[in-house]
Amino acid sequence: MSERTQDTKNYLPATNAGIDLKPYKEIYITTYLLKEKQKTGKKIYADIYQMNEDIIGGSGHLETWEPGDFSLKDKERLINEGTINN
């Protein structure tokens, strides 16, 4: 797990996952390593975005994929497609 603050201007992982951060100038991000792995054995991460301790969204990231960012809502689809092992 890691934690950091992030300027939202041009923050691509959120944009790639379909999250609109325009209302926010800066957000707090907590990154988690998920227990699931990619079919290739590579790692999967989840970023949770917060503002004033309220969760405003999140995205996932597939290690070594470009861009590799996905909406956390797509996790089940990625499992069904065989990209992520359950």
Q: In summary, what is this structure?
A:
The chain is mainly beta and 86 residues long.
Give an overview of the whole structure.
The chain is mainly β. It has a domain of 45 residues. Helix content is 13%, strand content 40%. The chain has a five-stranded antiparallel beta sheet with strand order 1-2-3-4-5. A hairpin with a 2-residue loop joins strand 3 and strand 4. The longest helix has 6 residues. The two termini are 20 Å apart. The mean pLDDT is 92.
How much of the sequence lies in strands comes to 35-45%
Q: Given the structure, what is the number of helices?
A: 2
User: How far is it from the N-terminal to the C-terminal residue, by CA?
Assistant: 20 Å
Q: Provide the structure class.
A: mainly beta
Q: Assign a percent range to the helix content.
A: 10-25%
Pattern of helices and strands: EHEEEEH
- The pLDDT mean sits at 92
Low-confidence stretches: none
What form results from the Cα inertia axes? elongated
Strand order of the largest sheet: 1-2-3-4-5
Q: What is Rg?
A: 13 Å
Number of strands: 5
- Main sheet summary: 5 strands, antiparallel
